[in-house]
Amino acid sequence: MKRNSRSSNKGRQQSTAGGSASARKTWFDDSTIALVAMAQDRALKAKVKGSKGGDDRKEARQRSSQLSTSSDTVGVSFAGAAFQADYFASKFTKRGQLVYTILHDVLSKSPHVLPPSETLAVASFGGGPGTDAAGIVWIQRELFPTSSVHCVLFDYETSWKRYVKTLDDLYGDAVSVSFAPCDVTHPLDTEPNRHVSEIETMDILLFCFVCHETSARQRNLQFYLDVATAAKVGALVILADVKTKSKECLEQVAIAMASVRRIQRLTLSKAPTAEAVVLRVEA
């Protein structure tokens, strides 16, 4: 009888997990459609007006193909609604699911790493499109259902701000979102980062596909040193980037952060689809 009970419980757990995965996929699919439609509408209007925002679709796809490659160390321009439509179509689900997978891996086996609280604050650097923060939506729903979350999208490309209201609607009542300009190639206390604030309040700091992408423009890693210095005790830092080619870059960032703060490196039980380093700021 006990064996049957265990089998029944396992079956229910698998069924629940399957249902959650299905709901998550549907949400990502629907959200992608909504964001692509919005960007395409903007591209069409810009083309009619003859403005700079009406970038050519072929040129936009060429730029998209350069993303997450070993040669993309100077950063591709993210301007233009046609490019942004293509970006949402190809990256929204992939990037969001990556963040979800990494955090779920860490938190499901070690929930004490990020104890539940009434509110959670998330900073997503280079996360202007909201693709990375999208993974937080499902972390909140599955692991922190009684918590509310606020995500700040920090990005060099300010035109991503136009999608904030749509993202806020898609993320649901429990997860809110805002945008602020940021340049990770400059120190935290310089003019380009004057709007970057409250780092010391952030529970999760995401650096997804930004470290390697901007590495050729980095004079040093001062921004990461500044963030590590300001981060609260217990904050989680997620570094993720293109597979293999970014590994050395992510290691350099992790080592730099550990040079100014006591940092614990957390292990993942399964390798994700990108290079990933998970850190926890210690006292």
Describe this structure in words.
The protein has one domain (2-281): Rossmann fold, CATH 3.40.50. The chain is globular and about 55 Å long. It has a seven-stranded mixed beta sheet with strand order 3-2-1-4-5-7-6, with helices on both faces. It has seven helices and seven strands; from the N terminus they run αααβαβαββαβαββ. Helix 2 packs parallel to helix 3, helix 3 (81-109) packs parallel to helix 4 (133-143) and helix 6 (222-230) packs across helix 7. It is an alpha/beta fold and 283 residues long.
Specify the CATH architecture: 3-Layer(aba) Sandwich
What pattern of helices and strands is seen along the backbone?
Answer: HHHEHEHEEHEHEE
Number of domains: 1
Q: Write out the strand line-up for the largest beta sheet, numbering strands in chain order.
A: 3-2-1-4-5-7-6
Bulk shape: globular
* Proportion of residues in extended strands: 15-25%
Helix content: 40-55%
Number of alpha- plus pi-helical segments? 7
What is the alpha-carbon Rg in Å?
19 Å
Classified by CATH, the class is Alpha Beta
The name CATH uses for the topology is: Rossmann fold
Query: Which residues form runs of ≥5 with pLDDT under 50?
Result: 1-15
Structural class: alpha/beta
Q: Kindly report the average pLDDT value.
A: 89
Q: How many strands, which pairing sense, and closed or not: the largest β-sheet?
A: 7 strands, mixed
